[in-house]
């Protein structure tokens, strides 16, 4: 009986190890860079855009506390130029400089966007590694 129990435990452990490896290999690292926007405000984002090195990527309207769909990018930094309209008013986040040490070319990321100052139309942005 002890041999049977030992054999069962060894088999179970081996199978679970095999399944973990299969799962790890079945979900490979992305070969592209995909970026989405999360609206963390109480307002709907209209005409949302991310601009990187002169290329503008357009996103659909994003309701409060929702994510946009994602776009494929060649690269991105921890900050990005982002503009949205809220109730017809333009809101902007403009980084001072692109930090080359934060440049990414693969993976899935979300820019969480909140309002820094409503009257001045300023946004706050934080990049999250999904």
Quick recap:
It contains one helix and eight strands, in the order αββββββββ. The protein is an alpha+beta fold and 130 residues long. It folds into two domains: 1-28; 33-129, Domain of unknown function DUF5300 (Immunoglobulin-like), CATH 2.60.40.2890.
Mean pLDDT: 85
Secondary structural class: alpha+beta
CATH architecture of the largest domain: Sandwich
Order of helices and strands: HEEEEEEEE
Briefly note the CATH topology name of the largest domain: Immunoglobulin-like
Task: Indicate the radius of gyration in whole angstroms.
Answer: 22 Å
Quote the beta fraction: 35-45%
Instruction: Give the end-to-end Cα distance, rounded to a whole number of Å.
Output: 47 Å
Principal-axis shape = elongated
Number of helices: 1
Helix content: 10-25%
Task: Give the C-level CATH assignment of the largest domain.
Answer: Mainly Beta
Low-pLDDT residue intervals, each spanning 5 or more residues: none
